[in-house]
Amino acid sequence: MEGSGRGGVLRLLLALCTLTAVFATATPARADSPVAPTQAAYLADRLRENPVHVTDQLPREVPRSTAPEFARLAKKTGVPTYVLVLPTQSSTDAEQLLGAVHDRLRRDGLYVLYEGTDLAEATAYGVRAPADAAATVALYELPYDAGPLRSFERFVEVVAQGEEKAAARAEAARETYADAEPAELYIGPSDRSDQSFLTGILLTGVPLMILLGAGLVRRRRRRAGAERRLPRWVVPGAATLAAAVIALTAPAVFDQTRSSAAEPPTPADLSARVERVAAGLRQNPVYADPESPRVLDDRGLDRLHDRIRDFRRSAGGGPVYVALVPQTPESEAAGDSWLFAAAVHDRTGRDGVYVVADPDDGSIDLYNYGLRIDSSRISFDLPDSVTLGDSRADEADDHLLGERLDRLMTFLDEAPRTDRPQLETDPAPAPSAAGENTLPPLFATDFWPGLFVGACLALLLFCVATGLMWAFDGLRRWRSPVPEPTHHLPLTAPTEPSESYLRRTARAELTALVQEFTDRDEAGQAWDLLDAALLLVDGDPGRLGEPAVDPATLVTVIVLARAGRAALSGDPTDLCCGVNPLHGPGVSRHHVRVSPQGPARRLLPVCDFCRDAAIADPTGVPGRLLRLPGPSSGQDRLPYYDVTDGPLTALPHGLARLVAKVRETAGVH
Length: 669
What we know:
alpha/beta, 5-stranded mixed sheet, 23 helices
């Protein structure tokens, strides 16, 4: 009995050891869901196969077919050069990514990373190459639309110059383009439309102006008795020659044919990514883009596989295919996840729910192809917290895609089943990649409206020229302009008027007031105002043109004359705008700020315009104050009440006080 008991214990220990060994050597991931290699390891494998790797996700901007051209340029650096062209990745540090790729590739050389069309990082590992200087030159010397190939060409050119020359060129580029970028290399469709419009205007406007202008000159010379006859064919010939020159030179001047540096993609470029993703989904229902940062860990990946398997086995369920692939405007689908899902479904030839999750921005979209699930529920009832995420997802590097995909599977489990399989409708096709960067012909689009506008402009200029010639004979020097309407003054009166403006306005206002007093024998406020204005010029309005009459006096004359005309028209007032007396009558008194610094305020009469400004934007009132030249030559302009101790200082206290101050100054009682 003792021996048999001891043997049982030994057998039990042996069984436990065997089980321990089995579990210790078991693979943690599922056989049908192998762990995808890290982003850096995948890229290192691609560079091990070829020193230039161009992603298949940017065919509209950087097609894969441009890789040989990158490789040709890379050979000119003089050192081993490895080039990566990837989509823009907001959550990945370019320098760290290049370092990780180098660590896994274990090859020294010059490593260059482009994200989209931008040179994101360049680093030399174990070789002497002026990577930073070359990147600086490519950044500063080229405009943003130069494209990656031209940028890499400039980068290689500087690297080949050596460290000393490259450093000098980088410093020169910084100084030259510190404040202004180089001119753009390409124009857009709207610019081409403007060129076409201008060409049309010139093609009809210039010849027609020659014909009409020649007729106008001929009539003018005939009236002057100095007509010189020319052969009849000269003017029509000149117009025809002008039209021919414009038609022939415009295409040479506006010779752009493309709106971007992007090369037209081949059909293989446009289908490469879809084929890659479809091939991956045929082997595994979850495809994680190896060029993008990993957003699902092993645990999350296992959880997602379990949910997909359970849904497939459930009543009314079916296959679910998840593509963790970024959707960019430069992709074959132009960033349209619906179009991408339809293309992948067509390639796989398998029905099911297709989920497109963007590892870069965290968006999730799903489409039903052939399962008995209510598609309207999928389209309209899926919560935004699943499709777009929430604030927590925005802050997380992985956008919480594992958690949100789990909630998505729960949504599918609970979605109503239908009697028949449902299919997504066909999405709108993507823009043509071959022609989206091609500019329309010059003689198209807005060229035809330009022809009409050119003819109209020629006729308009002819009418203007005719009117000017007729007015030339009766033109006289402008002496006394008609005073502006009072309601226009707050909008047209300057805050820092020139002396010539003040003299013209004072002469016009005072002359108008004197004329309105003709044949009248009135007293009262209007007469007091006129009398005060005349006292300032010793009774002679002609003195307003003399230098002895300073700007403050001119403003006083303007205020008195305008108030006098208002009194004659039956609209007397005792207030004039104290912010800017050139604004005309005031409507009330208001505490307003008179200095941009500090709380300095004054109680001033204000017009409607300044009152509204003082309420809505009190800090803007100091900028509206009337400012006049100081008494000293070269002195800065000051508020009108600070430049003189004359009558104008009484204006904020009312027109009656102003009239009294004028009479007091003149010694009249």
